[in-house]
């Protein structure tokens, strides 16, 4: 298991958008999958979430191409060798905020585990929004019936190391009611 002190991990994590092309080690992937399974989800409805671990270069390219067609931006998966997509099954007609929050929290749990393991990662929502515009690409993902892609995380080795950052204390506004 790769270990980094919790606050050091939180301060070190940042979006990595350049990858060497090398995949994370199996041990690092195992740690990231543990974080996937350990995440909290709304109402404990684990059966309403699904992860797709994509390493097939043809599928990664299909998603990139879809994003480029929809948004006119190439390389939205940054050439990372692994993309973990989180999909949710809507409890009602469309996905609700708890569905998106659960998927996002799973992704963030994995991002922290990746950081602790020294694996590069970046949240991916833009390319997933594009993906949802092209059912033909979604069909390539073999999702269980009723699941809709929400968000994901790209992963891979990167040149460099994580180091704890100074975090400004006023990035997010706070009001205090004492
Ligand atoms: C909900 C969410 C969606 C995001 N979507 C993308 C994305 O599609 N592509 C991307 O490159 N970064 C994406 N990011 C990363 C943010 O741009 C990044 O976390 C933010 O600018 C802060 O930078 P840092 O992560 O390096 O601290 C996303 C982050 C979050 C939390």
TrEMBL record:
Highest taxon in the source lineage: Bacteria
Keywords: Flavoprotein, FMN, Oxidoreductase
CDD domains noted in UniProt: Nitro_FMN_reductase
The keyword Cytoplasm appears for this protein: no
Cofactor(s) recorded in Swiss-Prot or TrEMBL: FMN
Stated family: Belongs to the nitroreductase family.
Pfam families: Nitroreductase (PF00881)
Nitroreductase domain: residues covered: 10-155
Name the UniProt record assigns to this protein: Nitroreductase family protein
